[in-house]
Amino acid sequence: MSESSVRQRKKTASGDAKPRKVKIPQSLPGANQHNRMWARVVMIVGIAVVVYFTTFRTREKKFATQRETLELRTQKLDCSTLYFEEIAKYAGCIPAHCGRFVSDKIVGPAEVDILLNLAKSGFRFGRSSGGASILDLHSGALSKDTQFINIYKIPEAKQIFSAEHINTYKHVKDKVQQAVSENFKINKDSLFLTHPTFFSRLTNETATTIHDEYWHPHVDKETYSSFHYTTLLYLTDFGKDFTGGRFVFIDSAGKHNKTNVYIEPKRGRISGFTSGAENLHQVEQVTAGVRYAITISFTCNKEHAMGDPQFSLQEDDGPEMI
Question: What is the pTM for the complete model shown?
């Protein structure tokens, strides 16, 4: 075969050959519709997530931390309707505004030491099996396992209460009463100590009765009808003596938004607030250590007033159940 014939064949094989068409398969029937459906689903879920996190929001705001030392910090609130309607009956006891306050300058360190010693001495004779124990010096009620006993019927217990204890207790109560009077612009003589006023001891033990479940949100006026003003004196330090156990006000802003306004307990810190629905609150569960505090409550209704504790009861008296 001649050289020219070979060149002709190569030219025909390479240059004259037509390019082969690649056939691209079309989408399966309904595939586009299926993809569009899933795109819509993803978009709807995304919108729902955005709406949820912008509509159902819980913010957290500090009111007082353990590291701070506060002369006075206040927050004014509108009184709830039912609270104001009731308290309006008591001239001289109507607050200039509802709200809350915190101060670290009302009770001194020596007074805290005496009251903490009193509390620890009393709780030696009884504690709840569920981690939330109370000692009411007015009625003698003391938590014991799942019940209450009368501490004044325990001979050894009577010896732990000294004149220093009772005088300090009364003096601190008077100073707290004065602070409530000044902060809410009411007549001190229109305020009366009321039941229950008690020491509390909280731990991380598992609750065994409903009395141990202290962490549920509640309104004091609904729990104790005599309450008009509530105060707490903290005897131990958040983050040092215990963890958890913060005091939290739950403020609503619309149907789904709320702000948790928290107080970190501090030795000698007093917090006070009007007892109506404007101050819905809870205590967080203690996660470690022991949290000691005193609840000191006041009423405007003289019929619900009680005197200072005498640290003794008649022989046939028993503790009031709380």
Answer: 0.80
